[in-house]
Amino acid sequence: xxxxxxxxxxxxxxxxxxxxxxxxxxxxxxxxxxxxxxxxxxxxxxxxxxxxxxxxxxxxxxxxxxxxxxxxxxxxxxxxxxxxxxxxxxxxxxxxxxxxxxxxxxxxxxxxxxxxxxxxxxxxxxxxxxxxxxxxxxxxxxxxxxxxxxxxxxxxxxxxxxxxxxxxxxxxxxxxxxxxxxxxxxxxxxxxxxxxxxxxxxxxxxxxxxxxxxxxxxxxxxxxxxxxxxxxxxxxxxxxxxxxxxxxxxxxxxxxxxxxxxxxxxxxxxxxxxxxxxxxxxxxxxxxxxxxxxxxxxxxxxxxxxxxxxxxxxxxxxxxxxxxxxxxxxxxxxxxxxx
Length: 339
Hints:
Helix content: 40-55%
CATH topology of the largest domain: Rossmann fold
């Protein structure tokens, strides 16, 4: 996030047009609400401050320069050329160090501004073919629920906005708090697989993978070799690998590591357990293995993450800054991420 200014809430600017998608604007308004998204659950640290910015008001667009995060939802006419004032305001906000988010077809607007050239992004699978033709300089990953590339974040269609909003909340305020927000929204903190599972013509044979994922989460503290997982599913290892890649969008090993890291985050945030015990509880085995994997995947040492997101009494603390000051930089950004 940006540098903290007197502990002020982090400013999220929601850029809206007359035809902005109401679902995506509602997601942003709920998750990044100034008063907090959950009644009775106080955001750790300064939390967020949400501001709606009318994209047709050039004066309002000039305020994007003070935002820490700029969010652009999709619209009813995704490929309609946008006003130069809007595109220039987005470019200026990005140049000032803002985190820029395009939800669903909002990625088209970011692409029109040239912000995604040479970067990895996603959008609604319905728009993928035309997007690729119009913006060949963008590395489109249409099968993903969301993609992070540096300070630029894009999501797939519709409710993928929830996935990305929860991901940003976890980065900013900690995984434990993001999980509480997800429970209130009756949403999964992290959905397996990507958009490909929802494409109408992507017909697949039914599998028991969702049940297997739940079983694996219940046994993360144990060794999970392919041989054991194949026995649980009553299939061959080769079939399991093929199923997993197709349904979840990643390898078994990568998924297990991700889930173990996410569980470690919660324990670091909410307990005083030493790293050796957290390593045992998450299946990493040793503190050194946990340290190495945590730094590789999160971008900061486990000890630094705990310092950022946990009070000394073990309760969750915040990692947000307020409105971004001059030269404000993002924390923990280390290259493209896609889910």
